[in-house]
Amino acid sequence: MSMLRKVLILVTATAVILPTASASSNSLIPYSEKDGKNGRSLIRSWGCKSKVDVKCTDVASGLPCQQTLKVTRSDCANANNKIKKSVLITWKYCNTGKSTQDTYSDKTVAIYKQWTKPDVYKNEPIAPGKCVELTSKKNINICKRGAKMSMKYEGHIKDKMGDTYCYNYKFLRVVKEWLPEGPCSLTTDIQCILKKGEDNEEEEKDCSGNIIKTDKGNCRNIPVTWKYNSCLSNYKQGQTFKFYPNKSYTRIKSQDVVGLDMTDIPSGEQICKSFEVDYDIDSCHEKTGSTLQVKGRWTYSGGEADCISQKILKVYAATQCEYNFIITEIIDPSDNPQRGYIEIYTPNCAGQVITDDIYIVIYKRGKNNMNRENPTSLKGLVVPDSGFIVFCATGDGKFFYKKKCDHKTGVGSPATSNGRDQIAIVKALEGNLDGEMEVLDIFGVIGEDGLGDNGQKTDHYFGDSRAVRKEGVTTPSSTWNVNDWDIKKTAKSSDADPKRWHDIGPPTNQPIDATPIDPPTKAPIMSPIKTPTSNEKNPGPTKDPSSTRESPSPSKESASKKTQSPNKSPSKQTQSPNKSPSKEGPSPSKEGPSPSKEGPSPSKEGPSPSKEAPSPSKEAPSPSKSGSKCAGKGCGKGKNSPTVSPAPSPSKTPKVTTKKKPEERGPRTYNQQRYRDNV
Q1: Which of 91, 319, 336, 441 is most exposed, with minimal Cβ within 10 Å?
Q2: Closest to 501 in 3D by CA, of 248, 264, 331, 316
């Protein structure tokens, strides 16, 4: 049985996956003393509607701050960790109702960091359809943290004080991003925005999840705007970037689009180039893709280098689906809280685009109202073929769990919970979190701190632990049921198995190994699962849900090595045949340092090198196996140092060199892999 709850606010978070729009506040909940507010007996008013917004814009480029707060560590070091970027902060609050509203002047505030923007208008009545807008220029030191800002509006309908109440709030956090080191600090980005009109009554509404597929005969042209930008963030002086005109392009559905400015770019500051293209998306087409590629030659004091950055965005015309999302795992690792994550699962909609206004929200400790800082929006996301979506709290976790982490949600998101909070999947019935919402699935009891009031831990406390839904409990529940869950105390990061829930999902008979190595092949996984099934004995290879490429057959690789399976996690059991150790390795993260390797050590049974065996990674060679040693000049120093078999006698023994398997992909240049985004 579902449970309806009223909430007040929609929060738009920049660190999460897809943009969501702030909208009016239709509903009313009296605040409780627990929430640190003065209790009020206020009634709901359908006419008391409001809207708030807060934006951060880079003054030089006109782009959102989140696309421009990017820098390398070396540039910061050369500038004594002081590189300032001028930004414009804009706060807005509006009366979207039909009656004049009076503002509570002591409670309506526009904030940047710890500073409150003076507002001379908040004592004046706001007529229907009118807004108050405030602006301020600030300097952000991008060598340090980003910035947070918010807009809160409280008021009431004129001449009805005490009978009606208006409230709205929006929080924005812009985060600094470390760029990978190298001469090429080049990035590209694409957005698809619905134009305001029949299909979009709001401004800046993202295309993803908002274009519904139609059958032939009912096709419609949906007007959109493609927004492209490329930025070169190099603060060293006396350097120049020259475009390769034949290798730099913008395309929509393989058709070239004119608009990319290819004039030379000097160094010394961040230079961004942007342009827009109006386009109609056919609702009968399953997907519409666009590509922006920038390639050129960077001339600098140390020489020259080819630089390339490519961004691919695919917009899918979605079909509606009964998602029935459930929370399957939440972890707050005892060894590293930065590696916390939330795993959800749908048995019905693998491979589908989420079209419903579904969020993952957090109720902090004993709060009765959801946390407004950073809810996780699911709308517009593509459900991987496994049916699982994993949301990691930080870049460290995304790096550690490799490709099993689908999205990084950032500070204040539900994935950052320390075990005392309540986590819920909710559906916004009015399109946003300002109105009514339905709780679809929940972990915990709203209003009850996981540690308890008297220090007695509740049955839903999972601090330093791992909460896993019991096997066979596949129905969402809007109320807490302790019998549906197992909580494993003192769980470490190595105990986690994202994208695996009991016998559903790819088998995980190997420990998490965060050594940064390049995967020579795609690891085989089980077939895509649309409904819960049990297939423990024969998990066949199929397409990796995190990649658009086909996975190779594991037959030769499995036969070439044998290893003893380590102990499995007690909560997600699986019986899987022995396989060769996984060679999957994460791309180096710009956010988190390389974590130490955990879990059982690799087997020492080292087979003879064979042509099927993957070659060592260039970035971080695999540890030498027993039975082989290094020999020769420069041994151990090169990236691909040869190994030799141990000599049985003093006689000279010929070298045996592992034959390197050809790479499936061409060599990557700076930033190419970091900014590729195949949906």
Answers
A1: 319
A2: 331
Q: CB of 19 within 8 A of CB of 10?
A: no
CB 27 within 8 A of CB 385: no
C-alpha neighbours within 13 Å on the C-beta side of residue 159:
2
How many residues are listed for the chain in this entry?
679
Burial class (CB in 10 A: 0-12, 13-18, 19+), 592: buried
Cα torsion angle, 19, 22, 27, 31, sign: positive
Max CA distance (Å), the chain? 103
First to last CA, the chain: 35
For tokens 């695996």, what's the residue? Answer: 500
- Considering the domain delimited by 45-178, tell me its CATH architecture: Sandwich (2.60)
pLDDT at 162: 57
d(Cα 236, Cα 257) in Å, to the nearest integer? 32
How far out from the chain centre does Cα 208 lie?
Answer: 15
Instruction: Give φ, ψ of 377 to 5 degrees.
Output: -85, 135
- Burial class of residue 473 in the structure, from the number of CB atoms within 10 Å of its CB (0-12 exposed, 13-18 middle, 19+ buried): middle
- What is the phi/psi pair of residue 404, to 5°? -80, -15
Would you say 188 and 671 are in contact if contact means Cβ atoms under 8 Å apart? Answer: no
Instruction: Identify any residues that bridge with 288 across adjacent strands, giving them in sequence order.
Output: 315
Task: Answer for the pair 90, 110: CB distance below 8 angstroms, yes or no.
Answer: no
pLDDT of residue 629: 38
Cβ–Cβ < 8 Å for 380, 208: yes
Separation CA 403–CA 141 (nearest Å): 32
The residue behind tokens 């140390």 is 302
Structure tokens at 656: 């045996």
As a three-state string, the secondary structure of 238-293 is CCEEEECCCCCEEEECCEECCCCCCCCEECCEEEEEEEEEEEEEECCCCEEEEEEE
H/E element, 49: none
For strand 422-428 and strand 436-443, is the pairing parallel, antiparallel, or unpaired? antiparallel
Report the distance separating Cα 210 and Cα 223, nearest Å.
Answer: 12
pLDDT computed for residue 303 by the predictor: 83
Contacts of 388 (CB under 8 A, 6+ apart): 328, 343, 344, 345, 498, 499, 500, 501, 505, 545
- The secondary element (H helix, E strand) that includes residue 644 is strand 643-644
How far apart are the C-alpha atoms of 335 and 213, rounded to whole Å? 46
Q: Report d(CA 443, CA 424) in Å as an integer.
A: 6
How far is Cα 152 from Cα 167, in angstroms, rounded to an integer? 8
- Which residue type, as a one-letter code, is found at position 218? N
Domain ranges of the chain: 45-178, 186-316, 326-490
Specify the pairing of strand 466-469 against strand 485-488: antiparallel
Type of residue numbered 6: K
pTM of the shown model: 0.64
- Cα gap 388→376, rounded to integer Å: 15
Cα R_g (the chain), whole angstroms: 27
Q: Are 81 and 154 in contact (CB under 8 A)?
A: no
DSSP 298: E
**Two tokens at 335?**
């060894």
CA distances from 174 to 77, 272, 273 (A): 22, 18, 21
- Using DSSP's 3-state secondary structure scheme, residue 33 falls into helix
Query: pLDDT value at position 94?
Result: 92
pLDDT of residue 98: 87
pLDDT value at residue 234: 82
Side-chain-facing half-sphere of 525: CA atoms under 13 Å = 26
User: What residues of the chain score a pLDDT lower than 70?
Assistant: 1-47, 159-163, 198-203, 507-679
